[in-house]
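Technical note accompanying the year-one report. For the benefit of new consortium partners, we illustrate the data format agreed upon in the data management plan: each record pairs a sequence with a structure-token string. No post-processing was applied to the example shown here.
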Amino acid sequence: NYVFSGNGSTRRRRTESAQRAEDPLGHTSQVVAAFRVFQQELDTKHDKYERLVKLSRDITIESKRTIFLLHRVTSVPNVEEVLNEADAKLDGVRQKIGQVAEELRGEDLHQFHKAFTSGVQEYVEAVSFHHFIRHRILISLEEINARLVFVKEEKLETKTPPLGHLLLVTPTDYLLGVADLTGELMRMCISSVGNGDMDTPFELSSFLRDIHDGFSYIGNMGPYEVSKKLHTLRQSLGKVEDACYMLRVRGSEIPKHMLADVLSSRTALLDHDEGVS
């Protein structure tokens, strides 16, 4: 019995020595406790970032579906019906943005901005496209942000007023969304010609020229991403102006049912030339 007890004591001493060698500070030290707090904070932020990325992906998908739906206005007799359906889809997108705003409550927006910026830009593109089709003007940043105020109703027993929270679209995200809008307007121009509408291309050309002038005032003084989009904007404007030229100069020479094919071929040729250059 004595020998067994002695061997057990020796084993315990060796185990304790090995543990001290592996963790000389000890599990209860203040340094380790502090780093555990840091680990928990970083894990929490990482989980929140991943949730925001997923929400941004959902916002992007639904916004693209809304844009695809809005392109039908060039080929349907009842435009208002399409716009109302798009309104319902945009309401669903805003609910997703409300979840983003809820995640960001009490947080520094700039720490998580990269996680959801692509979704916000796609939403700006969709809502500005919808607004242009209905009102023929560009929606302002203030109008977009006014629709992104979300109210959280409290329980009926409490007499506290509803809590409001919002997600402000930054000026950079707004400009990038508007720059992407020009590509959709260029596609709308080609579709309008294919459906026999010869007035919309000239209206779009004037509108795109105004947007281009606005971006030109910013130039290289604005954010880097905005200056990169300026090239794409110029391409879209050039294609719409080329379509207007074709309609004005050669419209009487080409049958109306062939104009869309001619313009599409012309646009593809311009894309190829720009790629080669």
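Partners are asked to follow this layout when depositing records. The longest strand covers residues 149-152.
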